Amino acid sequence: MHENKETPHSHQSSENIGVAPKYSPSRFSIAPMLDWTDRHCRYFHRLLTKETLLYTEMVTTGAIIHGKGDYLAHNKEEHPVALQLGASDPAALAHCAKLAEQRGYDEINLNVGCPSGRVQNGMFGACLMAQAALVADGIKAMRDVVSIPVTVKTRIGIDDQDSYEFLCDFISTVAGRGECAMFTLHARKAWLSGLSPKENREVPPLDYPRVYQLKRDFPALTIAINGGVKTLEEAQQHLQHLDGVMMGREAYQNPGILARVDNELFGVQGAVKDSVAIIESLYPYIERELSNGTYLGHITRHILGLFQGVPGARQWRRHLSENAHKPGADVQVVEQALDWVR
């Protein structure tokens, strides 16, 4: 990672006012995960780490343009936060990118990695790897109308199109014609038929050296890696070769790991926050959301894994799981659950 390099992402955490950030937030990010990384999850993750780049769940351009809900909703406390879009039509992508920038997002990311059949039918996700020119046109259309970074999350190949040459051709086209400067690569290929999305996260073998090679062959690009990263020690190893690391399920299922990120990966001095204190600092948000009609369980489902390895963690999870969905459930439910791990 190039130190002290000005990036469009550069921001100053509230604890470091006046201190130039050492690294771009893309040095470490939490993967966009459907049904998981919603705004409640992101608010919670931000309490654990100020520096990490957060991503929304993938949102389709159709949902944003035609949907009844507000698919761009996020909390002001989430920054830096990126919107991940799923689509292939350049005009729709440009329209939604412009809306997202107006709403304050720090980055737009195009999903070229999701292998689900539903996604393929909508002509987006991993199947787009076979259509590099179309991806490039979509990226260029977005770049032409926004000033924030436009990035791509992709795989290292699809089906039998999994040679290194295929990957290089894709990156070269999207970086050249699309003027895309940043890619996050899930270091597995995707099988577009025959495997479920879950199997596609586990069955195709990880190939980290291929992503390292890509960085060597495209040194001017910012390249981050995703797939199978479970510890900050592993993240440090990847950062010897690459610009960034994206962590997915481990960050969600064991969120306590995030409390060490700012110190260990971003060099921010300061004590790691106590997990109990983190939950207590979530109370005002919970109360605000409950008054707006949010159900407690929609928030607490994201905090279940915080106390992994701590005595009482099982009772903490059980108390929340059994009580958060009950009518009238409020902060008291969380307070009672905390008693098990204090």
UniProtKB/TrEMBL annotation:
It catalyses: 5,6-dihydrouridine(20a) in tRNA + NADP(+) = uridine(20a) in tRNA + NADPH + H(+); 5,6-dihydrouridine(20) in tRNA + NADP(+) = uridine(20) in tRNA + NADPH + H(+); 5,6-dihydrouridine(20a) in tRNA + NAD(+) = uridine(20a) in tRNA + NADH + H(+); 5,6-dihydrouridine(20) in tRNA + NAD(+) = uridine(20) in tRNA + NADH + H(+). Belongs to the dus family. Belongs to the Dus family. DusA subfamily. FMN binds at P32, M33, L34, Q84, K153, H186, N226, G227, G228, G248, R249. Residues 30-334 form the DUS-like FMN-binding domain. The record marks N111, K198, R201, R314, R317 as: Interacts with tRNA. It holds the Pfam family Dus. The lineage of its organism: Bacteria, Pseudomonadati, Pseudomonadota, Gammaproteobacteria, Enterobacterales. One of its GO terms (molecular function) is tRNA-dihydrouridine20 synthase activity. Keywords: Flavoprotein, FMN, NADP, Nucleotide-binding, Oxidoreductase, RNA-binding, tRNA processing, tRNA-binding. Gene3D superfamilies: 1.20.120.1460, Aldolase class I. Catalyzes the synthesis of 5,6-dihydrouridine (D), a modified base found in the D-loop of most tRNAs, via the reduction of the C5-C6 double bond in target uridines. Specifically modifies U20 and U20a in tRNAs. Its cofactor is FMN. The keyword Nucleus does not apply. The keyword NADP applies. Its EC number is 1.3.1.91. PANTHER family: FMN-LINKED OXIDOREDUCTASES SUPERFAMILY PROTEIN. This is tRNA-dihydrouridine(20/20a) synthase. The active site is at C114. Residues 1-20 are annotated as: Disordered. InterPro entries: Aldolase_TIM, DUS-like_FMN-bd, DUS_fam, DusA, tRNA_hU_synthase_CS. It is an enzyme of class 1 (oxidoreductase).
